[in-house]
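Following up on my earlier thread - several people asked me to post the actual chain instead of describing it. Fair enough. Here it is, all 286 residues.
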Amino acid sequence: MPELPEVEALKDFLTDHLVGREVVRVLPVAISVLKTYDPPLSAFEGREVTAVHRHGKFLDLEADGLHFVTHLARAGWLHWKDRLPDGPPRPGKGPLALRVALETGEGFDLTEAGTQKRLAVYVVRDPAEIPGVARLGPDPLADDFDEARFAALLEGERRQLKGALRDQSLIAGVGNAYSDEILHAARMSPFKLASALTPEETRRLYEALRSTLTEAVERSRGVAAGRLKAEKKTGLRVHGRAGEPCPVCGDIIREVSFSDSSLQYCPTCQTGGKPLADRRMSRLLK
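Reply from S.P.:
Thanks for posting it. Predicted structure:
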């Protein structure tokens, strides 16, 4: 799933390629992608893109008072085309979900692999009309997101750190991959309770959150849209690397699997050398 750093990079890329240009066609291929109907998708046609924004993991194209907002979900992606194919796309069994064409002949495709079909597109007058945007917590890279604000969010939070970091209503933009990376950088167990953090641990987690995301954004900046997935993977130290040596201490990276996801961690760096039980309600093995 694209997370804050990749969506931020897409925002920068599309700012360079879309702002000041007119959208001539918005062509849906998979009806399941459309989550709003008023204004209609066609209302975005004939408008000049004036800005591109990011709200957590949502990408927002603004054009003359309307917003085309998309959430790429777990298996969605944006593919920029310097020259779109001639003729309208044909509905079928392929991954193409929607196409946006500019007057220059350029544009982009939104695609989604798999069968879950969670890719979402909205056309709204105000992004706050979208429930997922309206419930977002603060952006962790915002200038006013300081340690005191972070500590206040975690105060009384009874969930485990892994779940708290991924909650978009608590902090916007962090998903499965970067929560693993943040916790590894902070040297904390993914199952430690947020409410149990000491002031020093809260500071350490805050610094890991900001530095991990900032470094990922910098790695992604200037990377073409089509290469962002590969760039993300090369920058990850523990997520998706079960069985490999930890780049910090050399211990073997372990994994805990759930029904629809998994997490990776280093026992030496994060759990005092003890492996976590690989089951849904994992606890440190005695």
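The CA atoms of residues 188 and 270 lie 5 Å apart. That should answer part of your original question.
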